[in-house]
TrEMBL record:
The keyword 4Fe-4S does not apply. Pfam families: Trep_Strep (PF09605). This is MptD family putative ECF transporter S component. InterPro entries: CHP02185_IM (IPR011733). It comes from the Bacteria. The chain crosses the membrane at residues 12-33, 39-56, 115-135, 162-182. Keywords: Membrane, Transmembrane, Transmembrane helix.
Length: 196
């Protein structure tokens, strides 16, 4: 693919913005709905990764250019870092760069590369949970203010220090499932775009 055709154009940026908005809305909708029950809240990264797989795969098919995934990671990072979760932005940017490199390694023409890039990118769905690692008391205090003391106590009970590793793991598993589902549902579109 030539550099000229691989450059992001204004139309690509508009599509990127629309998909980023859709991605973030679905991400927050799932977390909000599942957030009412502590255990469900903790599996939100998995559920989100499965559901968002179709959006991601459609996005990379619509904008198969270097920089597109990074734009999405910036949008997710900025929105998940509101409320002081600054680590979310750094996390999302790092994931975006790695996912971008994986997609680029497949020359934006490999379905396997796109699925693998989503397995990495899907970890962005657990971004807000980084507070459990570095500011758990503040996180639980916030939960108590919204949902009550029982909710915060239950969440505290089920979030040992190593829970972040579990959340990353289930997000990646969800990413694999979501990527496979998305690629199956969009098989005809991928074939039309010359993605194999």
């Amino acid at each position: 693919m030539s550099t000229k055709t691989n450059k992001l154009k204004t139309k690509d940026l508009i599509v990127a913005g629309a998909f980023a908005a859709l991605y973030v809305v679905v991400l927050f909708a799932v977390v909000t709905v599942m957030g009412f029950v502590p255990i469900l809240y903790l599996i939100a990264p998995f559920v989100n990764s499965v559901i968002l797989g179709c959006i991601y795969m459609m996005y990379v098919m619509k904008v198969p250019k270097t920089g597109a995934i990074l734009i999405l990671s910036v949008a997710v990072g900025l929105l998940t870092s509101t409320g002081g979760v600054w680590v979310s932005l750094i996390w999302c940017l790092a994931l975006g760069i790695v996912a971008e490199l994986i997609a680029r390694a497949g020359n934006h023409k490999s379905k396997k590369s796109y699925i693998l890039s989503y397995v990495v990118f899907a970890c962005s769905s657990m971004s807000p949970f980084w507070m459990l690692a570095y500011a758990k008391p503040a996180f639980l205090q916030s939960c108590e203010a919204y949902y009550g003391a029982d909710y915060a106590a239950t969440l505290d009970k089920f979030t040992p220090s190593w829970i972040i590793l579990v959340l990353i793991g289930i997000a990646m598993l969800g990413g694999l499932i979501g990527g496979l589902i998305g690629s199956k549902l969009l098989k005809k579109h991928f074939q039309k775009a010359g993605v194999v």
